[in-house]
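Side project, low priority. Logging it here so it doesn't get lost.
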Amino acid sequence: MTTETKAGTGKVVLGVVAAIVVASIGNAVVSYLAQALGADPNAVEGLKPQGYVVLTALGVIIAAIAWATIRKRAKDPARTLGKLVPIVVVVSFLADVPVFFLPGSSVVGVLALMVMHVVVAAVSVPIFRRVLPV
């Protein structure tokens, strides 16, 4: 591994960690607001820190891997990512739909989970553009 590759890898890892930290802080704010509006974190587990921090980290890591893969393989990675990112965010909302049917869950709680997906994308995309430019 060359020095340049090591520096590049370090930059990407730092970017991914930064995205996880900043998105987790953003999701903490969303969770706090949802709870202030009556969402029950005991019914909507994703509103608890142990839920949203782990899922945020997982989402950012998977997104970074996908971003890097698209960056390497797509003919026009910027265009591909520009189309794919919003689609993936909207499709990711489907994971939250079953929570509507859990006892004690609320519209506010489920909508907060969906907003959290947007927070992760809003934080990650600019960071990925910097550390994994297309």
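Brief comment: The mean pLDDT is 94.
Revisit when time allows.
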